[in-house]
Amino acid sequence: xxxxxxxxxTDKSILGAIVSSVAIIFLGFYLRKKxxxxxxxxxxxTKVVMTVSLxxxxxxxxxxxxxxxxxxxxLSILVWGFAIYIILIVLTKIIYLKxxxxxxxxxxxxxxxxxxxxxxxxxxxxxxxxxxxxxxNIFNIAYRVFLYSYAFIKMSGxxxxxxxxxxxxxxxxxxxxxxxxxxxxxxxxFQDMLxxxxxxxxxxTKSYGFLRIDQTLPWLYTPLTYxxxxxxxxxxxxxxxxxxxVPFKKAVSxxxxxxxxxxxxxxxxxxxxxLLVVLNTTGILPVAFEGVATTxxxxxxxxxxxxxxxxxxxxxxxxxxSNCSLLSTVVAVIAMPIWIVALEVxxxxxxx
Length: 352
Fold this sequence. Notes:
By secondary structure, the chain is mainly alpha-helical. The chain is built from 15 helices and two strands. Helix content is 78%, strand content 3%.
């Protein structure tokens, strides 16, 4: 075990990803504290990441040849995405059984939905590369369906009538990240059925679907690769800057906020991991290590911005929610390197 741990901690790619994420988050914190970056600047960074860099990252992750293994894994991740959110909806009712009234709904929604897109995906990309990014975006399809339906209903207290359904469907399907994910996913799945273009390669020529722009239109694809590489560092800077703006002492002093943060960052990913180990061992839903690791990191992300926004806008424990958002982010920054190392140890033991 000590040998495996040493090997993991000395792996240059793993160590580089951990140090990079933590260091850039702290850089964002420093820049905001020293007022080198303004509050408006931090919000603008977040907007650029969400509307430009992450959609570019989502799309480019699918610009690759399709193979049977990755297709099977992608479908497993899609199924698991819907399954884990249904499981968590049930389990959080049990976990927070003693909490009464509105606060139970807030606890449950904040626990189920983490910042998988803004916090989780950049870390997955840094550690597991394009394959991890692809799995993360497939996993997030279920996340957004439940976030804009179940979470909205719980926090607003409204029924999903025709008007609300229409509004939330727009939020799901007109979101730039979802559009990029669905477009990229469809190209990846059906690339062999698209009209083919012959492209010169090292050993002669090879045919590609015309929408595989990484091969057919490299001059158009290259700008997207520059944009997708900005996603992780810009997201980490924005996270650090956001942490610098929120009063920390009040959040730290509340036991219920600590309880929530530990459940969100530690217990939820453990539940996800244990269930996937069982499903993988029994052969019910085989998932490769990269897929398992991706879902664990996504589940270990702090409070989702949209979930927090629901609580605040509908006046559902808004102060508690703000404190949860802050403390869970701090705990996630500390816990994420531990999770990455733990996952590598599990991989080297041979569980996956």
